[in-house]
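ok new one. same drill as before - structure tokens go in, u give me an amino acid for every spot. 429 of them this time. try not to just spam alanines like last time pls lmao
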């Protein structure tokens, strides 16, 4: 009768990590070791340092004349050792990362608790990034020659300034409406609200938002603020992530974008987190479908049909921005459950914008006072235009080693309005 190494000797010369590991690896368990007393075998006691770790013994068990020494061919001993060592090495590496041997687990000092908490946070953050990156890598597509066909973007954190919401007059109302939709989602089915062709999971939120309005009014900033206020990450895509020069690849990319987001959404949802799928300048994708005149039209129509289908069954948070809502296909317009206009700023808002983006004294001259800000607010400029004017005026002032003056601002205001009205001007940018 063949005997394994453990059956023959009743012990392992390698460290053991508790009862579960012994069962997994085939080593003798606690109950098995108890029976070995009758054969004068020395048991391996668990180390007092940890309930999971056992030290190797200095002495070997007593041998008898009937002890059988099995060969490698009889027991596949080398293969068994290799498997055990792989498990041991992986466990030892985890313990080393956790500072298992270098800290006293019974210590309750503030510094010890602080170090352990920081270490766990870093490890958790690292593990989260690895989970997200592993999902992203699954969707990277390349040709046999190594040319990239699809390289999905990574989720990112929102990055607005802490006080930028004060310059968006409509943002508080939008934020309130957005949160109401999320909170009321679970009650829709209880009320009997029917939404054909959509998902039926009451625990899954579905918000499809369109932000539209003139250029420079703060649509992108609104997205950043919405994500920040909802503790959400942003997965931002544009036409470059979809359209490819090879025929047939663009529809595949459109499909992969939604599959990629849905897998990320499931991961975030399982960890009580949020992630927004954002499409800036969405009119380049959601424009009216064309008659099939060329292969390019066919590719675009195929991508649009995929977007229409995916949005109909969408789970998660989808936000699109556009300056040209009138160019949207009617089918896309219907898919958005919430449409919100970001209006052109009025005089009150423009005064806030000027005061917010201009540097504080002494970097702007005293002549730029409240009265002058009111005059600036009368010019019909968007927030984006105001930012451009301030930056150009600051360039001149810094180059000439002085502070921003009224003349700097009025010069570039005239230039900006001249460009907008298609009038020739000597100064422009």
């Amino acid at each position: 009768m063949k005997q394994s190494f453990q059956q023959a000797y009743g012990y392992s010369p390698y460290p053991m990590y508790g009862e579960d590991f012994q069962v997994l690896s085939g080593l003798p368990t606690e109950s098995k070791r108890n029976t070995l007393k009758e054969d004068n075998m020395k048991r391996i006691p668990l180390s007092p340092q940890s309930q999971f770790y056992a030290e190797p013994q200095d002495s070997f068990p007593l041998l008898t004349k009937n002890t059988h020494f099995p060969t490698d061919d009889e027991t596949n001993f080398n293969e068994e050792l290799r498997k055990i060592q792989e498990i041991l090495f992986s466990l030892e590496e985890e313990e080393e990362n956790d500072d298992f041997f270098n800290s006293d687990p019974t210590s309750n000092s503030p510094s010890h608790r602080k170090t352990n908490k920081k270490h766990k946070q870093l490890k958790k953050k690292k593990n989260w990034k690895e989970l997200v990156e592993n999902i992203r890598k699954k969707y990277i597509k390349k040709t046999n020659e190594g040319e990239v066909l699809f390289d999905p973007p990574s989720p990112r954190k929102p990055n607005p300034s802490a006080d930028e919401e004060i310059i968006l007059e409509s943002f508080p109302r939008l934020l309130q409406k957005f949160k109401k939709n999320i909170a009321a989602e679970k009650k829709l089915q209880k009320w009997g609200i029917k939404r054909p062709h959509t998902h039926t999971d009451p625990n899954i939120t579905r918000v499809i938002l369109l932000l539209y309005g003139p250029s420079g009014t703060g649509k992108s900033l609104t997205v950043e603020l919405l994500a920040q206020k909802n503790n959400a990450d942003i997965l931002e895509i544009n036409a470059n992530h979809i359209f490819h020069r090879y025929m047939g690849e663009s529809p595949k990319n459109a499909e992969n974008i939604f599959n990629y987001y849905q897998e990320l959404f499931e991961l975030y949802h399982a960890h009580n987190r949020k992630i927004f799928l954002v499409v800036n300048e969405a009119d380049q994708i959601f424009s009216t479908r064309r008659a099939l005149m060329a292969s390019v039209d066919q590719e675009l129509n195929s991508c649009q049909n995929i977007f229409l289908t995916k949005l109909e069954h969408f789970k998660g948070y989808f936000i699109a921005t556009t300056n040209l809502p009138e160019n949207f296909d009617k089918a896309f317009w219907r898919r958005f459950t919430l449409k919100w206009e970001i209006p052109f700023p009025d005089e009150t808002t423009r005064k806030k914008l000027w005061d917010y983006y201009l540097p504080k004294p002494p970097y702007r001259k005293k002549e730029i006072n409240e009265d002058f800000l009111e005059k600036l607010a009368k010019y019909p400029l968007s927030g984006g235009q105001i930012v451009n004017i301030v930056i150009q005026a600051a360039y001149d002032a810094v180059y000439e080693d002085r502070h921003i003056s009224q003349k700097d601002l009025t010069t570039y205001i005239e230039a900006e309005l001249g460009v907008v009205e298609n009038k020739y001007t000597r100064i422009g940018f």
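The first strand starts at residue 141 and ends at 142. and btw Residues 5-97 form one domain.
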